[in-house]
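Researcher: Structure for this, please.
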Amino acid sequence: MSDADATSRISRREALKKVGGGGLTVLGAGIVVGAVGTHAAAHAVGNGAAPTADDGHGGSTEYDGPRISGELPTGDAAGPYGGDYSAPEGMSAGDLDALTYPPPASTGTVEIEMTVVERSLQVSRAHTAEAWTYNGTAPGPIIRATEGELVRVRFRNATDHDHNVHFHGRHSPLHDGWEPVPPGGETVYEIAAGPAGVHPYHCHTMPIDRHIARGLYGALIVDPPGGRSDAHEVVLALSGWDVNDDGRNELYAWNGVAGFYEKFPIKVAAGEPVRAYVLNMTEFDPMASFHLHAEMFDVYPAGMGDRPAFTTDVVTFGQMDRAILEFTLPEIGRYMFHPHQHMMMSRGAMGWFSAI
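Model: Predicted structure, token format:
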């Protein structure tokens, strides 16, 4: 081996160590930038500089250096954790726990108080959304019940617009939730949870796409009688944020905050089973996906069935599609996840599982 080859191998090894430790930034096109410099990134995107005009997605009007897919700047200009599409600076690692980790399984009637409130949410380092929320968060609370048990939702609309809550799954049409509830109004929904799986809920008031896109959505987990096998469970709801109300998404997020799981990886035990309840809650984009690096997962479409339908490392979702994904991360290290629509990934929807 030549001295040059040995030096190259050492450089790559050191770069990988820094990626695993959070010392580098990995952006949507798979280009590693930061401590190893920006020369390779600039070479990869060609010699043309991006225009300085705003691209309509919140891109900088001042930076005129090299850019990668999605017109995002590379190198130091991107900043740590994806620059403008990173998690808000004031957030801490536990801030999304209630939206990431589902409540434990239980039996009997599930009682939920659900109020629609309007509030400003900082959804990335550089973006704030004027959101409609269930109980102040977007997504709304994770609801969990056993198949056949009663879910009773006491619903109140505390905004100046009509809203409601509609559950996917199987239940009586008398409580389907499509009727608008006026400002200040209240109602009670009662459904028998089922079938076993994972199902979205969302506002069904016209225009439905804008009500969902502004934050009115969440996850309902229905366990089979007898429960599920032990696993480290997480909920990952993909959404887009249309922060300038132009009918297209400017950034993307898992559980409502762009870049959160890139900055704060989801920690799991190496060698132990993981169960991810994954939902596509995006509006304005007809298709999304979930990709896990360095490992495969079993897919239960809609979370249903006694055995997986197939095994893969990329699963595609239409709007409101969902699945339970089960896998094990056998080796200590970081495993990236993201949609394989790289524009979504590079605008906030990239994260890590950290196997420890």
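Researcher: Any notable elements?
Model: Residues 4-61 have pLDDT under 50 and may be disordered. The longest strand covers residues 110-122.
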